[in-house]
Design brief:
The structure is a homodimer. Chain A is mainly beta. The first copy, chain A, has a single domain, classed as YaeB-like (Elongation Factor Tu (Ef-tu), domain 3, Beta Barrel). Helix content of chain A is about 5%, strand content about 30%.
Chain lengths: ~170, ~170
């Protein structure tokens, strides 16, 4: 499979993958739910901090088949959300974002454009309702309707580098 | 697609998805590299902390097509690795790990068994060599050869809940 690649849509210094784009078999993703947010193309905040400052409401809606997986989640828990940035191009390997002095590799950026557009956000649960599948969260910087892939408990003991742990 | 599901291989209280397992089209993953570690089935540490205590060497090898994406990564940087736990079952939605008093939903656990077995690890870069594609890292709790999906810079400003930031 080759992802569309428009050479005219590059900033100076940006580069795309040379070899097209090979997807691996047997690693298909399941959509476990979707993001609910006020954001759509044109009004989306740049990052989680900006989303938090501008305000919600924000939620994750878990699909019926996956709601039993919410057992043990509690109000106040910090969690990691993994979600799929469907609109992002996947072939940019060097990028020239406006806030950087020089072109930078995709793996040194948090840009949505990346070979696997899986985003992560560390958020807090404001409510947990297994019956409706709704988890209200403190902030999210993703479009309304974004597919959610996973929720994991956030643990300071492993999710903060040891030398930065309080 | 339905993932194999052996009902005899469940602990008391564990539950599997009722509806089989539907994979979404158009969300295939690319393998950007692989983990190098001393771990294989039978000797793998339970988590990153244990891996760090037991010691390496540990590395990520980036595949040739993706090495330009390393531009801007520096020794000492904390990064988030996303990798694919190929061996994990994907249909467990409630699990009964030995360290828990009662069965717990998959989304409240860091277990590798989950609908999308995408793991995340926050690690530090010990060396960066774009020519060979090798990134030495301080620790990893994944098997040797595990497929890598993404590398992102770890940022305290978004990857630690605001009220826990120092």
């Amino acid at each position: 499979m080759t992802i569309a690649n428009d050479p005219s849509d590059l900033r100076p210094g940006e580069r795309t993958l040379k070899t097209g784009f090979v997807l691996s078999d047997g690693m298909g993703l399941a959509i476990i739910g979707q993001i609910r947010s006020p954001w759509s193309n044109g009004n989306c905040p740049k990052n989680l901090r900006e989303a938090r400052a501008r305000g919600g409401p924000f939620a994750v809606e878990i699909a019926p088949a996956y709601r039993e997986g919410m057992l043990g989640l509690s109000v106040g828990d910090p969690v990691v959300l993994l979600y799929w940035m469907s609109g992002a191009r996947r072939d940019l390997i060097v990028q020239a974002p406006a806030h950087r002095d020089c072109p930078t590799g995709t793996f040194a950026l948090r840009s949505p454009a990346r070979p696997n557009p899986v985003a992560l956000a560390v958020v807090r649960l404001l409510s947990v309702d297994p019956a409706s599948g709704v988890l209200q969260i403190d902030a999210i910087d993703a479009f309304d309707g974004t597919p959610v892939l996973d929720i994991k408990p956030w643990l300071a003991s492993v999710d903060v580098p040891p030398d930065l742990q309080g």
